[in-house]
Amino acid sequence: MNFIKQIEIENFFSIKNKVSINFEADNYSKNNHKNRLFEYKNRFYNKIISFYGANASGKTTILKSLVVIGAIISNKKEILPFSIKNKFAHSNTKTKFMINFVVDNKEFIYELVLNSNKDKINDKINNEILYIIEDKKERLFDRKKRIIKVDLDKEIKNTIFDNLSDTISIIEEFKIFDKKEYLNKIQTFFKTITKVTNIETAFISKMGIQEKDEIKLVVNLLEIKGLKEFIFEFFNSIGIDIDDIKIEYEEDSDNNITKIDNLLLFHKINNNTPIEYKLESDGTKMLLKVLSDIYITSKNNSILVIDELDSVLHSFLVPIINELVINSNIQIIYSSHNLYNLKFLYSDELFIIEKDITHNTKIVSPKQQIDGYENLLFLYENGKLGGLPYFKNLITKISEWLMF
User: Fold this and answer.
1) Which residues does 125 contact at the CB level (< 8 Å), separation at least 6?
2) Distance in angstroms (rounded) separating the CA atoms of residues 189 and 184
3) pLDDT tens track for 185-241
4) Contacts of 170 (CB under 8 A, 6+ apart)
5) What domains does the chain contain, in order, with CATH numbers?
6) Which pLDDT tens digit goes with each residue over 114-151?
7) What's the predicted TM-score (pTM) here?
8) Most buried among 61, 72, 230, 260, using CB within 10 Å?
9) In angstroms, how far is the first alpha carbon of the chain from the final one?
């Protein structure tokens, strides 16, 4: 049971002001559907976290913050951008993150501060602090104060601090000395987040299917036991008749794969004539990707971060995927424009994002104003929750433009 309880973000891409998002469940959820929740120390937290709002409101930015934190903690520099500062904030305002999470039944708070200076190309690590929350809040490390609670000679410890890179987390540098393995478990948790997300870098989200997805799927099918059967069971439950997948590849004398030639999918209607992966529909390929990511996330006991989960997939499938995530006992954090999905969400699983004319971001959950179950689709469609596109006089203006 690994999950995120709360995040805070300030001065990161499109988020200018400090925002705080708490994933704790409300009383209605605790009393009526605990299967959708994680229980930790007599408190409950949602497995399903969805972000809705107009285009350019900041939904993707929330998800990117998790990926950037994960990239820094797991030392995946290829994910990081040249700069993550907010162009509308003060030039020297630092970028700040706080993430409160549970890993291996232990609660942690990680605080990360990045420099933000328009005269510099890269944003470097200014400070990072890790706390463990048990009977009390205990600091495990503090980068600036050169504090780290590992069993290590003081002189060696100081040598490592003296040579710390300002682009690499202290977790990467000290994890091998942590006998309790807190740092290693935390890094593994965040590394999985960066592995399965469709946010390829802090700049790019893969909304559709990419060529490299086939290679990634092939590797997963070859390496991960039970993945094929998991995919077949889901496909057959929704009327897709794929019941076998074969991979054509070449090996060397030591049985190492040297070349992948083809990925073939067999349908029940004609088991003798497979269809190449490239010829399958985008929806089928997206399902293969999402199902693979859910399975990997479950096996690694991590969380799944997806930008625009409804991209390519049929609207009816999103709530079914939510149920699959719940049954897999993992947490999913995603953005969506799928209004149909709102019929199957509860108020504490939904977060609405809005941005005002000064580029300040506001994130609210209906749980703050709704006591019990309500029809979220009806409320959202009628503007009761906010987060709608602004199109005052739009039709009139477009008509005027078309006349000239």
Assistant:
1) 72, 112, 113, 114, 115, 143, 166, 167, 168, 169
2) 9
3) 999 999 999 988 888 765 666 655 666 778 888 888 988 999 999 999 999 899 889
4) 128, 141, 143, 148, 164
5) 3-207+307-381 (3.40.50), 211-286 (no CATH)
6) 886 655 555 689 999 999 999 899 999 999 999 999 98
7) 0.90
8) 72
9) 61
